[in-house]
Write a structure and sequence with these properties.
With 223 residues, this protein is of the alpha+beta class. It has 2 domains: 12-105, 2-Layer Sandwich (Alpha-Beta Plaits); 106-216, Alpha-Beta Plaits. 35% of the residues lie in helices and 34% in strands. The protein is built from 7 helices and 8 strands, in the order E-H-H-E-E-H-H-E-E-H-E-E-H-H-E. It has helices at residues 25-35, 37-40, 68-80, 82-92, 134-151, 179-190, 193-202; strands spanning 12-20, 44-53, 58-65, 96-106, 121-129, 155-164, 169-176, 206-216. It has an 8-stranded antiparallel beta barrel with strand order 1-3-2-8-5-7-6-4. Helix 1 (25-35) runs antiparallel to helix 4 (82-92) and helix 5 (134-151) runs antiparallel to helix 7.
Length: 223
């Protein structure tokens, strides 16, 4: 996602977002915690969250695949898994209003991180950048991310750029000790001249931005 290292790994991540009927969220999450081990037996789950702020009645999960053939094999196996289909899918689908997915790669200058401890909250920030791709805005975007990292108030988990879905879109996953800790850090960052300068340079290429506060479910590897 810059003029530096190019994307040369076949590993990708699938983001799945489900809109749950408002009256059914508690029931859906109970089913996830009870039956989701049938799904994780087939491929690696990075994290599973429900939204607390920024969007309501949504669940969000990230899956890691070695390549597209790997994903195809997993989907075929899931279709034949009687426990997964019978105990989870058949009961969960009536609780959903909508499903959405995207495929993305980690940017070449970022490795998937982990929080320093369990607990805390996650922030999912989506940036819709101007057409032109990383050749146009990649360097400025990376500088803005690094400026926030350098303040030390937040932990970067991953930066992803889309391959399927809306293009010129970048997703950033952060971890914070608490919503209040994040708020205090953001206030400090707004007064940091380095952050202000980097954001001002990057925002020239920004079309829209959206964020959500995520709470991990008990079965999520990222907690």
């Amino acid at each position: 996602l810059a003029t530096g290292p190019r994307q040369d790994s076949s590993v990708f991540y699938e983001f799945r977002t489900y809109d749950i009927k408002p009256s059914k969220m508690k029931e859906f999450l109970e089913m996830v915690n009870k039956y989701f081990h049938f799904r994780t037996a087939h491929s690696e789950l990075v994290g599973f969250w429900y939204t607390e702020l920024g969007a309501l009645n949504k669940v969000f999960h990230i899956w890691k695949y070695d390549n597209f053939a790997h994903r195809t094999a997993v989907r075929q196996a899931l279709a034949q898994d009687k426990d997964w289909q019978g105990k989870f899918i058949s009961a969960a689908l009536p609780l959903m209003e909508k499903q959405h997915n995207e495929v993305a790669y980690l940017v070449p200058w970022c490795q998937l991180g982990k929080p320093p401890k369990e607990g805390g909250v996650y922030e999912w920030v989506t940036f819709q950048m101007k057409p032109g791709g990383p050749a146009l805005w990649g360097e400025a975007f990376r500088a803005a991310i690094n400026a926030h990292i350098n303040t030390g108030y937040t932990k970067l988990i991953g930066v992803f750029h889309t391959e399927y879905g809306l293009l010129n879109r970048v997703h950033v996953l952060w971890w914070n000790e608490s919503p209040d800790h994040r708020a205090a850090g953001r206030h400090r960052a707004h007064e940091d001249a380095r952050v202000v300068a980097a954001v001002r340079d990057s925002v020239r290429f920004l079309e829209s931005q959206q964020n959500a506060l995520l709470i991990p479910v008990p079965c999520s590897p990222l907690k």
